Amino acid sequence: MSDLERLSFSLERSLLARLEKLRKEGGYDNRSEFLRDMIRGRLVDRAWELDKEAVGAITLVYDHHTRGLNEKLTDLQHDHHAAILATTHVHLDHDHCVEVILVRGRAGRIRAVADLLQKQKGVLHGGLSVSSTGKELD
To answer: CA dist 114 to 4, 46, 125, Å?
Structure first.
């Protein structure tokens, strides 16, 4: 037996048209899965707003010729080892590397670690992809 609930709600035609456009652009075959994913996305956003336990991926693209940068990034990761789950390092070309650092902890702490790593001299671009631990999504 399914634990799904059937809902009924009203939308203005113009809002429904925009919803349908978003659904189609997202490649969803039906509204239900599209709405479920929108709700899950909002739950993740809310977990971050409330500084809940979260996970994320910090991406850094940098010039590995910048003096002392590799050591600085490694030292900072060791300083915050409790939040860091794993790091993957890839050589993009002769001059550039990318690191993806998987992190877990309070959302605010993850954001602080990401900010600290991204602002180092020689880091050309940094990003933080956020999610929840899944507890809020059950």
So the answer is: 38, 19, 11
Confidence of residue 2 (pLDDT cuts 50, 70, 90): confident
Which residues does 131 contact at the CB level (< 8 Å), separation at least 6? 44, 54, 55, 56
pTM of the model: 0.84
DSSP the chain: ------------HHHHHHHHHHHHHTT-SSHHHHHHHHHHHHHHHHHHHTT-EEEEEEEEEEETTSTTHHHHHHHHHHHTTTTEEEEEEEE-SSSEEEEEEEEEEEHHHHHHHHHHHHTSTTEEEEEEEEEE-SGGG-
Cross-strand pairs, 62: 97, 123
